[in-house]
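Our consortium's second objective concerns turning raw sequence data into structural hypotheses that experimental partners can test. To show how far this objective has progressed, the report includes one record in full. It was chosen at random from the queue rather than selected for favorable results. The single chain below, 315 residues long, was entered without modification.
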Amino acid sequence: MSRILIVEDDPAILCGLKDNLEFESHQVLTAADGEAGYRTLREYSPDLVILDLMLPKLSGYDLCKRARGEGFNAPILMLSACSQEGDRVLGLDLGANDYVSKPFSLRELLARVRALLRHEKEHRLDESRLNRELEMAAKVQQELFPRVLPNVPGLDYAGACKPARGVSGDYYDFIPLGERRLGMLLADVSGKGAPAALLGASLHAAVRANASAAWDRCGEVLVKANALLFETTTADRFATVFDGAYDPEAEALTYANVGPCPPMLVLQGTCVRLDSLTPPVGMCRVLPPAQKSVALIPGDCLLVGRGGPAGDRGN
């Protein structure tokens, strides 16, 4: 059963519509002027509004505009004795979902009501499925983030991620590599929702599986990750990645940077950009094993970000 609000100042039309909609098992609310209709709409949030245009106190146009401006999203079916194209266009532009001219066929109007309610129900089901998908994706993404930061003497570091809408393909990780070395991984997978989060998990696993054995060969690690993504995903799925390993004994950072948003090194107050070395992971069939090494001494700072202010830093 749906809750329907009829805002109509003609008593005969109001009564006829109310009786027929109640016969179809709907709960029907009524109002005879625009102000009363607006108050009822605010109080009861109906599933559908049948709205006359020529109303006392507040016109149907103004009521529709006000309701949409305040976030009311349920369908609005406009009724009017005006049959000019401009009137219909104005009503639709103000947020109405459908428009019926008076005099109207009762059977057609009831059919339009059923169609609007059916469409709204399907929309809510789609929205519910999307919300469940985003919740699942958020859970997958959160599981990728490190719970405990490895202790590396002489290195101060932190990471943060604030994805849009609560979930995306962004993630970071700190990987202990033994011998006091630390791996730093930051990636942004194309897309949003569950596909991006699951692809991020695959990329994360591929880098993790190869990082320990090839800690000083970051470029080779990304070559293997690239092969996995290219073979198992579509062309629109790729990732920008920063994969680095810091060796405190050598005071050096070895890194492979893929894609835009180059990392920045602050060396004794001077900013140095670490340029991208290859295209994004998963975009090309073959990725060259490109990497570089830079010296880091106490007081230097590394800033790595993807798509926003979140990132990693070490000094």
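The partners drew two points from this record. The chain has a mean pLDDT of 83. Helices lie at 11-23, 34-44, 60-69, 85-93, 106-144, 193-211, 218-232. Both points have been shared with the crystallography group to help prioritize constructs.
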